[in-house]
Amino acid sequence: MAVTIYGVVALTFMMGMYALEHRGPRFILAFAVGCILSSIYGFLSGAWPFGVVELVWSSIALRRYRQEVG
User: Fold this and answer.
1) Cα–Cα distance for residue pair 13/67, rounded to 1 Å
2) Integer CA distances (angstroms), 47 to 16, 20, 39, 42, 68, in order
3) What is the pTM of this model?
């Protein structure tokens, strides 16, 4: 049950930050963190393909963040 609650919180955070990305680079960075949290959930829940995809999304978001602040 704890893993499920963690997953709901992580995914909600990730989607919220995705929706707010247009407000600035800090939200892009927060989205990347949300992706990492969601990836952890994927691995904890046994859905490793989801975990891998979320790691890829986090790297894309981090690259976008660096472009915005660079």
Assistant:
1) 23
2) 22, 27, 9, 5, 32
3) 0.93
